[in-house]
Here is the input.
Amino acid sequence: MTTRLPKSPDLGLEPESAAVLSTAEVLHATERYVAHNYHPLDIVVAEAHGATVVDTDGREYLDFLAGYSALNFGHGHPVILEAARRQLEQVTLTSRAFHNDQLGPFARELCALVGKEMMLPMNTGAEAVESGIKVARKWGYERKGVRPDEANMIVAAGNFHGRTTTIISFSDDDEAHRNYGPYAPGFRTVPYGDIGAMDAAIDDNTVAVLLEPIQGEAGVVVPPAGYLPEVRSLTHSRNVLFMADEIQSGLGRTGATLACEHEAVVPDIYLLGKALGGGVVPVSAVVADAGILGVLQPGQHGSTFGGNPLACAVGRSVVALLKDGHYQARARSLGSILHTGLEQLRSKGVTAVRGRGLWAGVDIDPGLGTGREVCRRLAGYGILSKETHGSTIRLAPPLVTAEADITRGVDALGSVLQDLAM
Ligand code: PLP
Here is the structure.
């Protein structure tokens, strides 16, 4: 089969862009003209609906990655698409030079969903993290009395918060970090889950602790029970902000609106992204109380696209979908099927299963193959997934996946492990 690019004389497209390209030509163009900063599996997606993805040869797959949780509600959720379509016909971009009629309502609805007073709209996850870092530093200087230019922030080993120069400065992933220096100062890394180390690292100039409540890229690592509450009480007692990066863990994935809820912890700042854009547009946000976000005054931070009406309309539909707890409940029930099934694969070469809700990091016996090899073979069985590191794969199907399809995915992994053992 072939990929048909839009062909409409009305749009005045050049003949070249209206051409029909073969799958091989699409792959060649990607390889030749796109920087090689990713190493995708050789599947060319042409279409997707719900949890199903179709390639250019018409082959169907179950999406067990969901755009790293950006597609929590699946591909083309009708409520999200309808919100986007309606807004496309109204107005899509105003810049923040003017008000638009979607931003205020979106902010109010998102704040109500997560229980905070204010939000700062941005676009990508990394921008939300950068913005959170800026806000925390400003809060430190203006509210806490930290000495000028001496603010520090505590981060965790194994973190993943994005790809900007500041963020990769405190990444301990060699590929993400190497040759991008000089690195931004002001970050102190402590072992994830070690409250004593965090306590020792905090000093009078510490403005915040930045943590993923579950570390996604590290392999869906859940901290020891009680750790997040300990971080909460430590940060309270030392007058340090607790900033939770819920960009991958938040918005339903773990069976709660926010992963922090599982430990009844309320951080000072939530960083949200990915699923907030409904799989349609990049939407991210820093959400906190007015005593924190109130440090920002006109001209001190911004983004041309942040808070644009299309993003806000989509974001509002996402918030609406999360309001009644339906998808959170689905993540819990489907997640329990997923985790029970994965545990049963221990006899076939699964050495560890971590995660919460419909989210799992699965370690495979390295003797059987790399995570990439497992994902390549899973695609052969019609399941799309992604390795994290070494022999660890990550499973995060959309929350709209049918129960039987979760079992299909687990069975496919069983077949892959069996094939690899032969
Ligand atoms: N924070 C976390 C926890 C993430 O998992 C990611 C992306 O995977 C980011 C931040 C960065 O998000 P983005 O790729 O949208 O910049």
User: Anything to note?
Assistant: The longest strand covers residues 206-211. The pocket of pyridoxal-5'-phosphate is lined by residues 68, 124-126, 129, 160-162, 212, 216-217, 245, 247-248, 273 (CB under 6 Å). The mean pLDDT is 96. Residues 23-58 form one domain.
